[in-house]
Write a structure and sequence with these properties.
Blueprint lengths: L2 H16 L17 H24 L4 E4 L4 H15 L3 H21 L9 E5 L8 E3 L1 H5 L1
Parallel strand pairs: 1-2
Antiparallel strand pairs: 2-3
């Protein structure tokens, strides 16, 4: 894990979000494109999604992981999305992103060095036609 690169990416994103005026949160460059708010929610969700994968892999002792939408971890992802989508200000959306980022960093900090390369089987319950994927935390999270 490259802490410096991850921290720099976070800092660049935070600086960019801080420049967005509140009235631009719902701006879409084109009707079919995502709004600024949706992009911030997506990045925050990704942080929580990675946290969910870390927790699930470690709970399973790096055996078989099936991600399900009714789990507490997935509800955290959905709650982050709802939080950002309800934000009235850019600073509130930024706070939701930073909270998700901090959760991910905490989860990553709990991973022992030898666990990053341990393989496990990953299945998304909402994609029943997909075969289990053999992966590891380094591939899925970093």
């Amino acid at each position: 894990m490259n802490d410096a690169a991850l921290g720099e990416a976070r800092n660049l994103l935070v600086a960019a979000i801080r420049k967005i005026p509140d009235e631009a949160l719902d701006y879409r460059p084109a009707p079919s494109e995502w709004s600024v708010r949706e992009i911030v929610a997506h990045v925050a969700n990704a942080n929580d999604f990675y946290t969910m994968i870390i927790h699930a892999a470690r709970r399973s002792a790096f055996e078989s992981v099936t991600l399900v939408r009714d789990s507490a971890d997935y509800r955290m992802v959905a709650a982050t999305n709802d939080s950002v989508m309800r934000c009235a200000t850019t600073s509130a959306a930024l706070a939701a992103f930073e909270a998700a980022f901090d959760r991910m960093i905490a989860a990553m900090g709990d991973v022992r060095p030898d666990e990053w390369d341990r393989e496990f089987s990953l299945v998304y319950s909402w994609r029943p036609s997909d075969l289990p994927e053999v992966t590891n935390l380094k591939k899925r999270v970093i």
